[in-house]
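Note to self: user wants both folds in one dump. Writing first protein now.
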Amino acid sequence: QVQVVESGGGQVQPGGSLGLSCAASGSIVSIASMAWYRQAPGKQRELAARITGDGSTIYADSVKGRFTISRDNAKNTVYLQMNSLKPEDTAVYYCNAGIWSFYGDSEQRYFEVWGQGALVTVST
């Protein structure tokens, strides 16, 4: 079984910075892409940033130039550095990972795993 656990988040004033981290654990063979999604009150969950195994990244237009996603493959961890935060960045941020896991004696299976969410509040 595999899982991801987020840490970080909290409250910050507009223009401030926050960081999130997400560590994967369990019977991991390899991790494909890792991503951060967010869901603001009353809105649908949306992709904020994604990073593939080779380090390629994509960002939502709304966070480009302000957010940076990175990963440490040795630690099975993904990070999201958020700068110049705006009130509209307020949301629950969810870590998402595509993980190949050992299954049984010799099988490997692919799991899409979600974290429990970390609240980020940007307000005065």
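First done. Writing the second protein, which came from a different request thread.
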Amino acid sequence: QLRLVESGGGLVQAGGSLILSCAASGRTSNIYSMAWFRQAPGKEREFVASLTRSGDNANYADSVKGRFTISRDNGGITLYLQMNSLKLEDTAVYYCAARPAYSTKSYKAYVYWGQGTQVTVSS
């Protein structure tokens, strides 16, 4: 089994920065791509960014392009999300996800999920 654990969430003022981390353990050989999703209250879970294990193919939601950066290290099993210029609308629970195939923006395609970490942006 594969386990994902997110950390780094918190309260930040608009315009500030946060770094989220996602540590994978267990059957990490099952990972080919990893991604960040987020879900605000009353809204559907939405794609934020994804990255292949090799780190050579990153994709971003239009809403975060130029502000967020996804990266991986530790042999591709630790995922990060550097979030800059945070906006009120970035407030959500952020989830790390992984799958044993190419990355996709559809949350339904991901097999493994973390428990989520809350990010709250205040004015």
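Dump finished. Worth passing along: The chain has a mean pLDDT of 93.
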